Amino acid sequence: MAKRVFFCFHYEDVESFRANVVRNHWVTKEDSEDAGFFDASLWEETKNRGGPAALKRLINGGLENTSVTCVLVGSETYSRTWVRYEILKSMKRGNRLFGVHINGIKDRYEQTKDLGPNPFGYLGIQYSADGQSLTMYEAVNGQWAEYAEVDGSSTYTLKNTAANERRGKFLKLKDDYPVYLWNKNNGYENFSNWVDGK
């Protein structure tokens, strides 16, 4: 059964066509079930209206009934305020997370770019000593700062106690979540496997 996937991306990557190659690749498959997902993403341009509270409600609503979040990694994705929110909100709600580098996809001018920074390297988590909770962090000007934008707190109680080796540890999200290359890792054929965590 196809999963509902929420896509995080910088709107400039939609304008350059790269993000849409991934989001719409299912169109050329026999049916949407073959793609292994349904697109539940929002346009960042749309999110730039209504103030922070309204934007959070929009994102939270978009994440409802999704089980997977895919971050489309362009040149500036790592620094986007709302992409960071989408990633950490997805993590808190238990979505499977992964990223896909899209700068190797040709834009509308047939140009490619160097890979953008991994957004998961700019977000971190600190487990409590007893493994009952974790605190979210973001990198700001080269320093780690607590991130309290998700539901008004940087710390939340875990549904399941963290494994012993994680207790008291700080980890960057890049230590937990994979990032694939659309071209080199054959995203057209393998995207549904990435959605399923294979």
Describe what you observe in this structure.
The chain is α/β, with parallel strands linked by helices and 198 residues long. It has a domain at 3-117 and 177-196: Rossmann fold. The chain is built from 7 helices and 10 strands. The protein has helices spanning 11-15, 18-23, 32-35, 44-47, 51-63, 81-93, 187-196; strands spanning 3-8, 37-39, 68-73, 96-101, 123-127, 133-140, 143-146, 155-157, 170-172, 179-181. The strands form 2 sheets. A 5-stranded parallel beta sheet has the order 2-1-3-4-10, with helices on both faces. Strands 5, 6, 7, 8 and 9 form a 5-stranded antiparallel beta sheet that branches. A hairpin with a 5-residue loop joins strand 5 (123-127) and strand 6 (133-140). Helix 5 (51-63) crosses helix 6 (81-93). The longest helix is centred in the first third of the chain and has 13 residues, at 51-63. The mean pLDDT is 88.
The largest sheet is: 5 strands, parallel
Relative helix content:
25-40%
CA-CA gap between termini: 15 Å
Order of helices and strands: EHHHEHHEHEEEEEEEH
- Poorly predicted parts: none
* Name of the CATH class of the domain at 3-117 and 177-196: Alpha Beta
The CATH topology of the domain at 3-117 and 177-196 corresponds to: Rossmann fold
Shape: globular
Q: Please identify, by name, the CATH architecture of the domain at 3-117 and 177-196.
A: 3-Layer(aba) Sandwich
Counting H and I runs of at least 4 residues, what is the number of helices? 7
Q: Radius of gyration in whole Å, from Cα?
A: 17 Å
Oligomer type = single chain
Give the beta-strand count.
10
Order of strands, main sheet, comes to 2-1-3-4-10
Give the integer mean of the pLDDT values.
88
β-strand percent reads 15-25%
